[in-house]
Amino acid sequence: MLNALRPAMTRLLTPAGRLLARTPVTPNAVTVAGTVGVAGGALGLFPLGELFPGAVCCTVFVVTDMLDGVLARMRGSSGRWGAFLDSTMDRIGDAAVFSGIAAWFVLGGHDRLLAGVAVFCLVAGLLVSYAKARAEGLGLRADVGLIERPERMLIALTSAGLSGLGVPYILMVGLWALAAGSAFTFWQRVRAVYAAAKAPGTPAGSPGGEEG
Asked: For residue 44, how far is the Cα from the chain centroid?
């Protein structure tokens, strides 16, 4: 859904990308730095109950992380390693955000149910990403779904930030909505892959294959 905003974000970040292109900073360094910032903000602030500062910190670094693609295109250095690194770092950032929220509910929020919901959001988000990656590895498409990574980050960080500002129940509502939406998105992708695999003319893949 929010992927439609990528062209606008690219235009917004282009000036910063031009500045970075004049420095020795590489797109991969931007990718890693963005993930370190997200992980530091989420794991350093959320468990302490600093939800608003943590959400702001994570949001800044999530946006900064988008510079890697802009910089790579400007330098003509886009490649498979960069794409792999970016996807891997995204998973680390996701894990940090939802682990930090879960830790807050265990340590300070005293709500183990919502801690479990946060962990479910993390697992469901990983399954959504895995379903797409595995489908593409088999030559199929699974780029459908209600809740993708931009929506996950938007809902999680917005609800955490507003909760930190004192808005009641917003984090609970955000997590439950995200859990339901992520589970539904996983089902959408599994269904899409099933339909594509059963379509006439689809070449057979390797049965029983697994990824490590």
From this structure: 19
